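Re: weekly structure request thread

Next one in the queue (147 aa):
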Amino acid sequence: MTAARAVLDRYLERRGHRKTSERYTILEAIYAIDGHFTLEELSEKLEREQRFIVSRATLYNTLRLFTELRIVTRHSLGGTTSFEACLNHGEHSHLVCTRCGSVTEVDSPQVSQAIGLMPTGGFLPDGYTLYIYGLCGQCRAEGETAL
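Done, posted below.
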């Protein structure tokens, strides 16, 4: 959270934008969520836990800014847009079930190592998102019993 706040502070100061309490409240709520969340889930969390009511447009615009600053990652999984705090979150991959839409995060040190060894021609990677599509264990089991 501290690193994400520092990124936001630097951006706002360089651009001459105001450091509004709304942006920081939203950032804190995001970094308190473990895993993926939708815009609606974030709105509900802010309202329920902090009695903080914010318009959908403000949330959307703030999430867009946070995505541009790379302190939040935007995912399109199973026809749903979700977000995830990503600064210092660690690299991981997403297993996406094509039947039920479940998403499971897995640590993937081999993938991180392969990316580190990949020839990039001077490009300096600072993160990645990997989606692996298939059937989760439950859908596989249901499919096998249906035969």
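The two ends are 49 Å apart (CA to CA). The first strand starts at residue 72 and ends at 77.
Next request, please.
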